Amino acid sequence: MKIARVAIDVPLNRLFDYYADDVDADDIGRLVEVPFRSKTTIGVIVDISQQSDVPRARLKSIVRVLRDAPALTSADLHLMKFAAEYYHFALGPTIMGAIPALLRRGAFFNSERVAFSLSAAGAAIAIEDLPSRASVQRRLLGLLRASDCVDGEAMGNIAPTARLVLKEFERRGWINSVRRSPQAPHAPCDQRAAPAVVLTAEQSAAAATIRGALHRFAPFILFGVTGSGKTEVYLNIIDSALCAGRQTLILVPEIALTPQLENTVRNRFPDARLVTLHSALNETERFANWRAAHCGEARIVLGTRLAAFASMPDLGLIIVDEEHDASFKQSDGLRYSARDLAVVRARQHHIPIVLGSATPSLETYYNAISGRYQLLTLRQRINGSFPHIDCINTRDERLPDGLSPRLLGKMALCLERGEQSLIFINRRGFAPVVLCRACGWLSGCHRCSAHLVLHQAERRMRCHHCGHESPIPAACPHCGAQELGPLGQGTQRIEAALREHFPGARILRIDRDSTRRKPAWPAMRREIENRAVDILVGTQILAKGHDFPHLSLVGIVNADSLLYNSDVRASERLYALLTQVAGRAGRAQTAGEVLIQTDFPNHPLYRALKEQDFAEYARTLLEERRQGGFPPYVHQALLRAEATKLDTALAYLVRAARIGRDLSTHVTIYDPVPAAMPRLAGRERAQLLVQSRSRTRLQAFLKGWNARLSSKAWRRARWSLDVDPLEF
Ligand code: ADP
Ligand code: ZN
Ligand code: ZN
User: Fold this and answer.
1) At what angle do helices 604-611 and 614-628 cross, to 10 degrees?
2) N or C, fewer C-beta in 10 Å, the chain?
3) What Cα–Cα distance (Å) separates residue 147 from each residue in 105, 135, 156, 175?
4) Ligand that comes closest to the CA of residue 479
5) Which atom belonging to ligand 1 lies closest to the Cα atom of 230?
6) Going by CA atoms, what residue is nearest to atom 18 of ligand 1?
7) Which value, to the nearest 10 degrees, does the dihedral of the CA atoms of residues 289, 292, 295, 297 take?
8) What pLDDT, on the 0 to 100 scale, is given for residue 184?
9) Which of 261, 357, 383, 584 to mutate to test the pocket of ligand 1 (most atoms within 8 A of CB)?
10) Whose CA is closest to atom 20 on ligand 1?
11) Are 402 and 494 in contact (CB under 8 A)?
12) Contact assessment for residue 327 and residue 304, using Cβ atoms and an 8 Å cutoff
């Protein structure tokens, strides 16, 4: 009797057994169709066994093994099993969530691996020439026009009739089919398009050290100020990995905002196929790219956190850029940290991993201090010098527009000299809240513990957390007075104020609202590069990884609102954010200046920022963390609960805490508290913190606790575990 143990996408912490006579050890990792709850579903074989705990009479047989579909490798499964165990999440959903949706639905093209390209005749056809109702034809032609060569399987998946349409295209002579060998050899390493620059001494020392570790597990921190040329170090070692016949995985926080890195890598290695993996891709693209990585055709994978699981048979190097960024942590479902999993993956594959940042997370930096990771430092800026950072004391000033005379004066000088300036404010919209001056009423979201943000141009109030919208009331809903007005500043209000101050200036606002349309942002960047813009107003979209060579002044407004915050990571994050914003200035010939408007110019954070000594500030923060008993000196997990009433969520956590205390005295279990934002989209949320100095002990506790909590059905509260939580 042969039993296949199958992982299925249901939130149960177990595998499912099926009779499977024609499977053997080679089928581990393959997709399989199995009967499940009166339907059939797709799962993954994770083990083969001779027996089962399920009574024979209840065991069913698999329907079929999907042998044409790409199978997960043992290395893939190894990583996914680790993630499921470490984050205490069921293995089925972990695996199914880590592979492309098309694969998990078993909906892929079952033919040989062919790809298509447009023939000369096909290239002459415009999409408009096709009947407007022939939507599949139009989409396929669009795909073919967008790329030199498109995977047949991927195209066959876009619609049920896609294969027929492709046949028809072939009959008309519009497309040529190319057979692709699944293991396309990687490009020879002497064919580079963009020439490599000559590395500085610091850069080449860093690159040489990493290169020396290409065939073993070695974690590095590439700690380099903004503009110190971290990217060139990445390129240099990617080159070595390519030459050694290995694939490289590059993880970045948000790909849509940082297309520069993608272009740079593509241009340097035009013959090594690069694919991206991120949530903005549609299912077909995602599958095609995943598949290219999986069969070894793509030699470089550049992606967001979800790419941490990309299947890569020849993986030889991992790079995590801006490793401190919080978006590497998934905030629902499998709450994994892509950065941490990347380190685990590097260890499993015996390969080096490079964590790059100008402001490493304290967890990472601590690993450098304690000698677990090797620290590689880039101290010099390549082009130009460091910007000069200073504070403008706004404590005793009344700033009706939120902009101080000194900042405005500096901006005027910039304008005169034909240089660009940037005002950074971390809030979009016109004003963060509407206030009634008669009774003090504030516009609040009825579904969240948050304010409704005023969007003046659209005459709407919007919740930035749940998306709820309403018109601006004519009178105060509370007292009826007609004294409603904006309170505080957002990007739109700053923009409006600047237009009044500098009527001749060309002003561009860059935030999630103004860049919502897909092509908007690249067009804006070109305008900035071409000096068609004098003043930029924007949120952190502007802070990330862009070079603005003509920018010489950065004004930072409203940073104080991020300064006093109950979150232990608030200072660390603000420092990182301001460093990134400040790093935009003076990238080229123009010497840069950064002015921070603040009521607290002597705050240690601003003082450290002025000195631009991250290492020193990190040591201070670490000492605070050590004394306060916070990570990285302890390891934490949160049990989160949500319900329609806060009391229900809290009551659940009280019971969970009691169960936990019965289990162990080796971890600290705190009392349940409401979440920092208790109400979100109509649900009330509470949490319970558990911590220990020992990760092993915490993990052992979580395992037992999770099992106990899972064994009881709780109808009224939904709960989840968050290991190494970043949001409280
Ligand atoms: P970081 O990522 O550390 O902020 P970048 O990698 O973007 O810095 O480098 C900043 C700029 O310096 C880029 O325009 C890059 O092309 C340039 N650069 C990097 N290294 C060198 C070098 N060795 N010689 C010349 N220019 C370089
Ligand atoms: Zn009122
Ligand atoms: Zn809301």
Assistant:
1) 150
2) N
3) 26, 19, 16, 13
4) 2
5) 3
6) 229
7) -150
8) 40
9) 383
10) 229
11) yes
12) yes
Assigned token pair, 103:
């694969």
Contact of 378 with 221, CB cutoff 8 Å: no
422 CA to centre of ligand 1 in angstroms:
21
Instruction: Report which of 64, 78, 79 is spatially closest to residue 31, judged by C-alpha positions.
Output: 64
What is the mean pLDDT for each group of 10 consecutive residues in the chain (728 residues)? 94 93 92 94 95 90 92 97 97 96 77 72 86 87 81 74 85 79 43 77 97 96 93 96 96 80 91 92 92 95 97 97 96 97 98 97 96 96 85 89 94 94 95 96 95 94 95 95 94 96 95 80 86 93 78 93 86 94 76 92 94 93 96 97 96 96 90 95 96 96 95 88 95
Pocket test for ligand 1, best of 204, 232, 377 (most atoms within 8 A of CB): 232
Distance CA 486, CA 431 (A): 6
Distance, in Å, from the CA atom of 111 to the CA atom of 68, rounded to the nearest integer, reads: 8
At 160, which amino acid appears? P
CA of 483 to the centre of ligand 2 (A): 7
Question: How far is ligand 1, taken at its centre, from the CA of residue 236, in Å?
Answer: 12
* Helix (H) or strand (E) run with residue 375 in it: strand 374-378
| One-letter identity of residue 568 | V
Give the number of the ligand closest to the Cα of residue 477: 2
Find, among 336, 331, 284, the residue nearest to 307 by Cα.
336
Say how many C-beta atoms besides its own lie within 10 A of residue 331's C-beta. 11
**What residue's CA is closest to ligand 1, atom 2?**
230
Question: Where does ligand 1 bind, in terms of residues with CB under 6 Å?
Answer: 197-200, 203, 224, 226-232, 382-383, 547
The tokens for 340 are 């941490």
Structure tokens at 611: 């000195």
Quote the pLDDT of residue 56. 87
Q: What angle do CA 641, 647, 653 make, to 5 degrees?
A: 40
Dist CA 31 CA 28 (whole Å): 9
pTM above threshold 0.70:
yes
CA of 310 to the centre of ligand 1 (A): 28
Name residue 95's amino acid: I
- List of long-range contacts for 166-174, beta carbons under 8 Å, 24+ apart: 166/116, 166/140, 169/116, 169/122, 169/137, 169/140, 169/141, 170/116, 172/121, 173/119, 173/121, 173/122, 174/118, 174/119, 174/121, 174/122, 174/125
Phi, psi of 693 (to 5 degrees): -75, -20
Place of tokens 């993996």: 277
3-state secondary structure 616-662: HHHHHHHHHHHHHCCCCCCEEEEEEEEECCHHHHHHHHHHHHHHHHH
The phi and psi torsions of 355 (rounded to 5 degrees) equal -100, 110
